[in-house]
Amino acid sequence: MSEGPLDDLLRDGTQMILSLWHQDVVPFFHYMAATSCLEHRNKFAMLASQSYDGELTERVVGPWGFRFLRGSRGKKGARAALRGLRRALKDGERIIVVADGPEPPAQYFQPGPVFLARTTGVPLYVVRTWGRPQWILRRTRYRMVIPRPRSVLGVFSSGPIDVSGDFEGARARAEAALAQLCVRAEEKLYGNKPARGIRIADRTRHIETRVRLL
User: Fold this and answer.
1) Can you tell me the distance from the alpha carbon of 214 to that of 202, in angstroms, rounded to the nearest whole number?
2) Where are the domains of the chain?
3) How confident is the model at residue 203 (pLDDT cuts 50, 70, 90)?
4) How far from each other are the two terminal CA atoms of the chain, in whole angstroms?
């Protein structure tokens, strides 16, 4: 299930900056791997930290057509990451930026994607990827979600985001657009039916999750 311009953009090979919440990373990669991302023209560049987590992410999803730029935390690391992404955009690549990363709070749209769109002229799009049913890891920092087997995956996108004028206003518009997609995804996949949950204890990693059931 897909709503919005993303499918056409992928098909046409349009250059873009694509932003999503940290929470959606797993279902989003699942969607990209199942669509045209494997085609050469649809490769994306994105950031990965210098940590083991970043290395693991690169190993897992790199073969799906993603080129990773390794960065680090802190002001110097952030500036270096932005320079790398700007170079990628100037070279004609398309990039993915996690909007609320690399540090909390969750679902606060950081200024990086807006800055890149304003300084390069490449349009900014936002995407929400949501599953029915799915596991929500509520004790993780970003409440990560993992689609259950045979779940329905909904991909909701919008843009280009207007990044002109006041910078904070542009950042707020991007955040509001992504928030609207979150509401749309919930309505489309779950309607007015309240979500019910059961706790599952992962005995090997001691992680409790709450499972969304239909």
Assistant:
1) 22
2) 2-131+151-188
3) very low
4) 17
Angular region, 118: left φ>0, alpha ψ -120 to 50, beta rest: alpha
How far is 111 from 174, CA to CA, in rounded Å? 10
Q: What is the CATH code for 2-131+151-188?
A: 3.40.50
Does a cis peptide bond (omega within 30 degrees of 0) precede residue 160?
yes
CA distances from 200 to 132, 139, 140, 214 (A): 18, 12, 14, 16
pLDDT in tens, 7-64: 999 888 899 999 999 889 888 888 887 775 445 445 788 876 665 555 656 676 666 6
Q: What is the pLDDT of residues 148-195, one digit of tens each?
A: 988 899 999 999 999 999 999 999 999 999 999 999 999 999 886 644
Rounded to two decimals, the pTM is 0.81
- Give residue 165's identity as a one-letter amino acid code: G
- For the chain, list the strands marked E by DSSP: 2-3, 17-20, 44-49, 66-71, 94-98, 124-136, 145-158, 199-202, 207-211
d(CA 151, CA 53): 26
Q: Give residue for tokens 């930290």.
A: 49
